[in-house]
Design a protein that fits this description.
Low-confidence stretches: 1-5
Largest sheet: 6 strands, mixed
Oligomer: single chain
Helix content: 40-55%
Shape: rod-shaped
Strand content: 15-25%
Length: about 400
């Protein structure tokens, strides 16, 4: 223990350093002095100011590094938590919403991690379920009403197509194909364009789906949405077709009625290409009265039907056939290059007659015999009535001279 001789180390001065103080040391250097009194003992510690400042700076630097490290850890931890609990959840919600917007309405939003996201997910799922159930409710209402009706709606750019349950049945779409169409509005649009490409004759909004189904389709297209309502009009169309058939066809033979025959024949003649030839043919059954008188009217009907079936067996692209009245029939042979082709078609017809027999009674069957006359023309402006009159005159000559054959009209 060395004595404190300098002024700065006097006892009364040291007692002032119980809280620490700067004092002059040897060589005039500044010293930081700290004292503590324990009874009669005074303990004193002195440290040069330069060393003190160095240690202080070291401590501050160490503390700063520690704080920076702690701050970095906290930031990384917060970033991780925010990304895991918030950002990733938001991204998943956005992805699911994008999928739903594109029409994938079976997408389930399942984002956990916090109560707010779970509440939001449940709300979105409930909303989508409510939207999907709308078409089901409409379908149920339509089914209860008993009306053969279906509807669809879709927005361009949104894949899913909302449809009522009866649509696939009305349009006769297989189940697997229907599911694919409902998930892609472009394919559905193309399918509807194909269905509505050609309306039935005389209509603008009625289309044939198959042999027994016809539908009326009302469509509304805009940039916002496409709507369609489909109704089954098969019964109305079939009844109308039946009425048209009965008005234009002979009930016994199924051939055209004479008035309708002349109408079509006029169109064929008017549209005949230059250089072609056509012929009007009048036909009369031989011995028909004796068939009726001998075997009865039922056998007479069979005789007429057998003859008509031979007429119907001729190629439709060259023969137009009709029943005029009773046992009188007529044909137009068209699409021929010359008279030789006309007569070759007539020979073909008479050959078919000779090879067809009709059973008039259990004991007797015979071939149908018919006489015919025809008149040819190469003029599209010719009159069908005039051709038929000339053919009838030729028929009269055949009936008078040689039944069972045909001849051409000669002026």
């Amino acid at each position: 223990m060395r004595a404190f001789e300098s002024e700065s180390y006097q006892l009364d001065q040291l007692l002032e350093c119980t809280k620490g103080a700067y004092k002059k040391g040897e060589n005039g250097s500044s010293m930081y002095v700290f004292t503590r009194k324990y009874g009669d003992i005074l303990i004193c510690a002195a440290l040069p100011q330069s060393i003190l400042l160095k240690k202080l700076l070291d401590q501050v630097f160490s503390t700063l590094l520690y704080l920076l490290f702690v701050e970095a850890v906290v930031i990384l931890l917060l970033n991780y938590l925010v990304k895991q609990k918030v950002v990733n959840g938001i991204h998943r919600i956005m992805e699911n919403l994008s999928s739903i917007t594109n029409g994938n309405l079976d997408t389930k939003v399942t984002v956990g991690g916090n109560q707010e996201f779970e509440t939001l997910s449940n709300g979105i799922n409930a909303m989508v379920k409510s939207i999907v159930s709308v078409s089901d409710r409409i379908s149920a209402i339509i089914e209860i009403s008993g009306v053969s009706l279906a509807a669809y709606e879709y927005e361009p750019g949104v894949n899913h197509v909302f449809v009522t349950s009866g649509l696939r049945k009305l349009l006769d779409i297989p189940d697997e194909e229907a599911e694919e169409l409902y998930q892609d509005f472009r394919r559905f649009d193309q399918y509807m364009d194909k269905v509505t490409a050609v309306p039935i004759e005389g209509e603008t909004d009625i289309f044939r789906i198959n042999d027994s189904r016809y539908v009326r389709i009302h469509m509304s297209k805009s940039q916002e949405r496409n709507l369609g309502v489909i109704t089954d009009v098969s019964t109305d169309v079939m009844e109308k077709k039946q009425m048209q058939y009965e008005n234009t066809h002979d009930a016994l033979t199924g051939l055209y009625k004479f008035s309708y025959f002349k109408q079509i024949a006029e169109e064929i003649l008017t549209e005949m290409p230059e250089g072609n030839m056509c012929a009007a043919v009048m036909l009369d059954l031989d011995f028909f009265k004796s068939v009726n008188d001998t075997f009865g009217h039922d056998a007479g009907d069979k005789y007429l039907q057998c003859f008509a079936s031979v007429m119907q067996s001729m190629p439709l692209d060259h023969f137009l056939t009709a029943r005029r009245s009773g046992d009188e029939f007529c044909m137009m042979i068209f699409g021929c290059r010359d008279k030789l082709e006309v007569t070759s078609f007539l020979d073909r017809f008479y050959e078919a007659l000779r090879n067809r027999r009709v059973e008039l009674s259990p004991e007797e069957s015979r071939c149908v015999s018919a006489s015919g006359g025809f008149a040819c023309t190469e003029q599209a402006a010719a009159s069908v009535e005039e051709l038929l009159t000339h053919a009838d005159e030729a028929l009269y000559e055949v009936k008078r001279q040689k039944k069972g054959s045909y001849r051409e009209y000669k002026e």
